[in-house]
Amino acid sequence: MSTDFSVEDKLGLLENTIDYFWTQFAGIVVLLMQLGFAFLEGGCVRYKNMQSIMIKVYLNTCIAVICWWLVGYGICMGSGKFAGTDYYAGSNFAGTKNYSHWVLQTSVGAAANSIVSGGAVERMSIIGYCFLSVAFSSFIYPICAHWTWGGGWLQDLGYIDLAGSGTIHFMSALGALVLTVMLGARKNRWNEKYANEFNPSNTTYICLSTLSLYTCWIFFNAGSTTALSGTMAYAAGRATTNTIIAGASGGLTLMVLHYYKNRNEKSKFSLVMICNGNLAGLVAVTGSCDGIELWAAFVIGILGGLTYWGFGILMHKFKVDDPVDAFPIHGGCGLIGAQFPGWFNTEKGIFYGHGAKQWGIQLLGTVVWLGWSVVLHAVVIFVLKILGLLNVTPEVEEKGLDYAQCGGGGFDYQLLPPILSAGGYENVKSAINQKQNNVPQFGQDNDQQQVL
Amino acid sequence: MSTDFSVEDKLGLLENTIDYFWTQFAGIVVLLMQLGFAFLEGGCVRYKNMQSIMIKVYLNTCIAVICWWLVGYGICMGSGKFAGTDYYAGSNFAGTKNYSHWVLQTSVGAAANSIVSGGAVERMSIIGYCFLSVAFSSFIYPICAHWTWGGGWLQDLGYIDLAGSGTIHFMSALGALVLTVMLGARKNRWNEKYANEFNPSNTTYICLSTLSLYTCWIFFNAGSTTALSGTMAYAAGRATTNTIIAGASGGLTLMVLHYYKNRNEKSKFSLVMICNGNLAGLVAVTGSCDGIELWAAFVIGILGGLTYWGFGILMHKFKVDDPVDAFPIHGGCGLIGAQFPGWFNTEKGIFYGHGAKQWGIQLLGTVVWLGWSVVLHAVVIFVLKILGLLNVTPEVEEKGLDYAQCGGGGFDYQLLPPILSAGGYENVKSAINQKQNNVPQFGQDNDQQQVL
Amino acid sequence: MSTDFSVEDKLGLLENTIDYFWTQFAGIVVLLMQLGFAFLEGGCVRYKNMQSIMIKVYLNTCIAVICWWLVGYGICMGSGKFAGTDYYAGSNFAGTKNYSHWVLQTSVGAAANSIVSGGAVERMSIIGYCFLSVAFSSFIYPICAHWTWGGGWLQDLGYIDLAGSGTIHFMSALGALVLTVMLGARKNRWNEKYANEFNPSNTTYICLSTLSLYTCWIFFNAGSTTALSGTMAYAAGRATTNTIIAGASGGLTLMVLHYYKNRNEKSKFSLVMICNGNLAGLVAVTGSCDGIELWAAFVIGILGGLTYWGFGILMHKFKVDDPVDAFPIHGGCGLIGAQFPGWFNTEKGIFYGHGAKQWGIQLLGTVVWLGWSVVLHAVVIFVLKILGLLNVTPEVEEKGLDYAQCGGGGFDYQLLPPILSAGGYENVKSAINQKQNNVPQFGQDNDQQQVL
């Protein structure tokens, strides 16, 4: 390091270095959450759509990166009340904190986009989903991010949402909800006879996903402090601790709820419920985690678990087909998580005698996300519908997107050598089908994806 | 950062920041080891129990977090010779190193708890396992941690165990051993006719697990220095390097041993053996890794591999059914790993001419873990037995916990579309069973876990 | 920290700490790439070879660690024009940056070794592969690393290759190419009737692999700056941002190319193509990522994608059986990636008006890698051939290395309880085989790997 710098200068540089490193580092780890989303959704859907949903998550990752380079970061972090106007296409990055902040904001934006993908599984056109991702990553979400963290009007009002219970989870899950409603339910979804067919196809993938999301989520929340120097290390430490606790109490809450409801059944325990409860607690604590005490994180985890459970019942009651529980988890728990800074924040919350003003601001933000997300998503998705880019055809849905459009399933072909040696599925199927009953077949072909 | 601080103050803060960051950061990564344990054990057990063991690991993760928040951290890091009395339920955390140390200690505690779960697979009640986890995370392990790292009496005596070869691995594996002995062997485990049935069901999951554990383990060991500032970066660097080397030499040792023994068989090579050898080397170096030279790490990896191999033979000889090799890996290699600071430590070890005093202290610690762990685990497990919370019924064991209690398998249902289209397992089974031979069926039903 | 140090000293130590930490930290994360390589190759090969390729990757990881401790690091980082002569077997590490640099260089060396393994799948002797790994990690690659980063002659000339587009990817992929050519194509590989058999067996494993490689790759590239203090944080930030962007544009490029070519087929979309395009972009930007602007990274990702596509077509045209596309991805994109510092580097590149001198140096380096790698690999592999350690026998290849030498498949045995309850594969096969057609059987046995 040059000797031209004074000790004070060097110290300031070092503080910057640590802050940039922390922010950028957390951002890189948050990018790994895309693996979590791919396997969470892949584990939930039927095998005939496992490859296609991973394609969607992978594509929205790449699309988010390009959109955030071109316009998203400029909108989010540039100056302006409604939307930022600097930093488009990487301009003015050299020698600033923008590299590190771009990494964090972009990864976070990709994660938000993946939440929306939860509504798209098993029946949405892949091309249509790409267009929706472009819209989401170019303006729907970056503008929300600007309002909350980039110097926008909500931030000016004092809205608190550290890592986005409202801005990211609630807002994005509303997109998933609008999408899933406009796509309509999957065929036979609400026909009791076919209920088993819609159970998660691979619970180990869901476990892989949520245990890795748990770790990445901690960096997501703690990294959103974007600083460690000075006394900021304590804020990041508190965010870390609270995130871990809320995730754990959410997981245990769902374990208990599920056990109590099914205590006389053969499905007393459910790995998926524990995983989703874990996520529910994480979503619920995301907005408030740096400003609350540890007992509050424990309570928030329980409230998150209960909210997920309640919204899940509502979705079933109103027959909304949300294949990966995107809205109960991210929407329901994001909704309450956006309120918690108004309740539990040690310096602003109702529970600490600071009145309801902060909660009022949080409610305002919540209403804003509701209106913004529903309207914009509905418009974009309606345009896709007009263009014929929303639903796949009933034949493609029946066959599965993997077999109809992606050249083969995620990993069912060739799985068992005897099946291959017997000439593939078709032969096995007909060998078995002498006992064919009234469960519908969904076709599959031997032609697989071509590697080149 | 405020200008009220002097340069000296700022520098001190910055050193703290780096130390807290390192500790907390390593702690977060160690939490990811739960994914490793879930897939290691999931890959070892039969498919009919894959979901249930992942449930156990997930639950002990959540339970460890809550217990360490309420009492564990207070016992471990509070002041007192026998057990700490401060910091219960997150008290007195604000503005201290406690956030970062809580994260590390809690993640480490969750990992220790997962080692015990190795004894519980395929036949232990899930509810009973939860109670055992509460006991383990509330007092069995935190007290050991206090004695070693929290200012307890063993630490005062000079006991060295950086990241817990003795305190964590040996102690916890003794718990797994007591558990597996008191549960008894799985049905048909020692009947040669059924030997193949007990082979690992998914070696790729085991590979996924150990390659990710390898990386996390490095952070576990190096992070246990809990400091990087000043000259501590070198200690962390040495711990890192030695951990990598010992893991590699352990893996190669088992590759060679297995090859030599099976050189004329069709199973000359074994992925599982390499994975377990890798773990064996890691366990063996865990206690001494910051204080030894690189050649010693190489030797320790080999000794770890040999020890694992030897204990594995003993377990088979005495027909102890340890389904995931928890005791040979964590117990055997933890046992020797606890001695190595007395042998190889450059400032205290016999090999460097410092006499046997340090080894004496290490032996004392080892005996303490043996007595403490066996007695406490035996008592707790005996109480569970009396309460009827130890073994599942023979019917549940036969059917598999997944099918009997968890609503379905980890990922076998719906796996192959033709099987689903043929009406599910039952039909496939009867279509196939014309050739039914004397291998016992283990039933499965079409009812799957309900998502809500 | 001792009070003997002045503020200046402490500050210098702290800067060192941060630099060492960054380097070592990135190195540990890069080790996790071995998981990515194991699952990338495991997902590409037929099920009958999934365990064996993971064995190869695991072994080359362990071998690289031991070789880099004994000689690799000394050759790479010691002083000398042709090869370093210090630091063998960990000598002179104490109190230096060598611990942290050893970790990074060793992990990087293990990754390079895994690239070569791509040529070895499905037909190479495991023992033979071990010898090749020893050669690769002992001198073939460390000497290249010395020339580029360790003070060797190419570095003196001004060759730029931050994280090794040329030195690692191109050089290693040439090794894979020589290996795959000398091994010959897999049986029936170019017989159209069997084309489907050679499709990737598990696209979800490939997705798992590339999404985790994406994240680790960022640390690989940014960590290769080996410093964060002073103004170096900006270089690492730029490397991070550019790596993310190039990966994304590579993935999208292949999505578009594949869609366009197959727009009228049932395989319009391909998860594997997106994954490989992602990798292609990453390889292409690896050499230049700290010295280019963001738009250049976007362009490089596209060029990487096109290059991968083009080389893929060439490999098919010339019937080179490269089972995991190692050469099109690492070789093709490494080849162009090595040129880009001469084109896009803001301070040296043609596009910034600095003439062709830098490109000339890059071309020289490229020619050196070509000659060095082809000759050395050919010699070593030829020796293996003479010793009978190259190809497995046709019987072993037919049966699959897993079934012939590793005691069983990666996860096909016991997969479906009804199959086990029907007496295993053999019975299922004969029950099904009444419809046996002209697709060849590949046998499997019930004997599985023995755990001990």
Automatic annotation (TrEMBL), chains A, B, C:
One of its GO terms (biological process) is ammonium homeostasis. The chain crosses the membrane at residues 20-45, 57-82, 102-121, 126-148, 168-185, 205-223, 235-257, 269-288, 294-314, 326-344, 364-384. GO terms for molecular function: ammonium channel activity. It comes from the Eukaryota. The keyword Membrane applies. One of its GO terms (cellular component) is plasma membrane. Pfam families: Ammonium_transp (PF00909). InterPro entries: NH4_transpt_AmtB-like_dom. Residues 22-407 form the Ammonium transporter AmtB-like domain. Keywords: Ammonia transport, Membrane, Transmembrane, Transmembrane helix, Transport. It is found in: Membrane. It is a multi-pass membrane protein. PANTHER family: AMMONIUM TRANSPORTER. Belongs to the ammonia transporter channel (TC 1.A.11.2) family. This is Ammonium transporter AmtB-like domain-containing protein. It comes from Paramecium octaurelia.
